[in-house]
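WARN no homologs supplied; continuing
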Amino acid sequence: MSLTFLLDPPVGPELRDGVLTLWTDVSNAGGSVGFIPPVTVEDIRPEWLKHLAAMTEGRTRLLVALDDERAVAATAFLSFNTHRLMKHWVWLYTVMVHPRHQGKGYGRDLLAAAEEAAGSFEGIEAIRLTCRGGEGLERFYASCGYKEVGRVPDAIRVGPGDDRDDITMLLPLALRD
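OK structure emitted
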């Protein structure tokens, strides 16, 4: 099985429901995508609406991966900087692969598709993301070419007594020719 990647797919009920289900399932499986389980679709919906507003305003682009059944299998949001001194790089947010598809290399495929998308945006020279420490995510991103460029100890409170580092990773696109 392979994934079909779409940048800026048409937003409608099917995409909305697919992204919300993906985000809920990833969160409930322990994924580091902004929520602590258990969550419901209704818990996630306000964040989707924020992303949707940013997409409508042209500040964010959505990258979706569909599986062979045309179900939303993975997503990433690429957000442009509004600060005039930082317009040469984008943020990569909410990088998710559905738990049923993990271990198939789809995370690498998603990051490669995000890199290709960002490389097609005029003036963009790098991708920056943050990840939660304690999950091994920084090793995964490093294996995909990202470099750790910053770390704030204990900046993310997952629960009482469970603080994690907030790790910033960078992928310079110019070095990836």
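The chain has four helices and seven strands.
OK
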